[in-house]
Design goal:
Blueprint (H helix, E strand, L loop, with lengths): L11 E4 L9 E4 L2 H34 L7 H12 L3 H14 L6 H26 L32 H26 L20 E7 L11 E12 L15 E8 L8 E7 L5 E7 L13 E4 L13
Antiparallel strand pairs: 1-2, 3-4, 4-5, 6-7, 7-8
Helix pairs in contact: 1-2, 1-4, 2-3, 3-4
Length: 320
Amino acid sequence: MSLPAETYIYTGFWINWSRGRVLGSAITLSQRNGSLLTAFLGIFVTVAGAACWTIQSFLIHQHQAKKGPGSALHHQQQVVLRNSNTAGSAAWQITQVAWQWRKITKESSLQSLSIVLLAVSNMVLFGIAGVFSAEVTKAAGNETLIRSPNCGYLLQDSNRSDLSLFEAVAGFTAMEANATLAASAYSRACYGKSLSGLQCHQYPEPNIPWTNNRNVPCPFKGNICKDDVGGFEMDTGLIDSLKTLGINSKASEAIQYRKVTSCSVIRTKEYAHEYNSTNSENEVQQLIRYDYGRFSNHPDNITYEYDKDNIIGPSGYTLV
């Protein structure tokens, strides 16, 4: 049985080529390391905000420093700038000083306004940065790179000695049937007018657009189809390997693939016959063979073979 995709999630630096080299640069971390990074960024933004205000208040303090005597309002502002640890406390204390001096001098509000605005701007900007620091771990969305050591067709392992042929075939057939049921459930949830279900977001595109033609000629040679016209054709058009299938590669290395499948009702009476066979366990099998031509590398010149006494279970299907 195949392992879930989460087993092969690549951790480390990689490039999501669907977003380009710059915007697609990403680092995938484990859940534990991702939580630590989010916590660190929150603390870092807070410390950076406090340090930034310390530098700003020092520069303002030095800019307003006078060699000669100054007003009491000036000295109070300098004291606040010298001793405030955060932008919020500085804005509040400067506002209090300006309020106390409002009846003594009209310039108190103007002299304090620029400092208050700078302190509030610092506080707001770093507050927003703190809120959105967690989004750094989601900048590339929920996309991850799946890197599996296995690539190709899934074949039955005929070299296992711990399983009989019947058990191996039964397990493999059950797996194919489960995959077919999963695909059927996915198509019902993700190929309608509205998406329903979390599984619709596990691929770059929830579904592959396709068109159909319900009146095409018989796709087979000879007198195989029941009707010469009336077949059903499905056409996907050009499918982009990067944008639609999610095969991560440079745009110049991506390919476009098109799948056209035609179906038609075929005659069976003239092409099917029953056949008795003996399996490896000396059991007699009643088979129905359909002779439309050899399929793949089958040793006999048949297209499909069906076991009338099949007790293994349903088998999956493949469009060819």
